[in-house]
Amino acid sequence: MEKVVWSCNDYSIFRVGTDRLHDVASFVVTENYNHHSSGSLPDTAIQKIEDIYNEELTYSKVSFYFIVRDKNGKMIGSIRVFKWDKLTPTPMQKIFHISPLEKVSDKPDTSFWHIGRFAIDSSTGFSTVTLFKQLMTLAVAPIMKEEDSYMIAETDSHLLRVMNALGIETQQIGKPLIYLASETIPVYSSKQGLSNFYIRHYPLLAAS
Which pTM was predicted? Predict the structure, then answer.
């Protein structure tokens, strides 16, 4: 299932279903190694793709997946957001052994939304910053609809600098480690910390 949520002459953003999860997993792994290594996939890449695919299946019923396709139908971007049920282990718990309930808030009414599987093909010739702004705005949207809500994420150190420069206020909650060939940092952001970014960049989507 693919449903257009935004479109321009060069590319379109789709919300997709579980039938596209393996494509997303493959795209994320491939682009991470393209960006952060020699560009050649390691022997473990196929297993990493399967691991990510199977992990995403556990969150799929509560997830929103978005992909970007160019006018020829090639996937050039992806992102995913899901609401954490506070029971199923998050990627942050699996990778960093960090629980948001211990590091951020344990109030019963607090909600957590995990944003991940972000990747962009930088060889397209389109502005990667604009693509990031659009995908991140879509991912942040459900967080803005709840009162006491937080984003949690594991983000590449370079991308984290971009996020902060664009007005996303993040807090680091653990030490960096290498994940999918890049230095990755566990962070969170409150609804308030996301508000300026969302308000500023929502017009990139609202025009469609």
Answer: 0.94
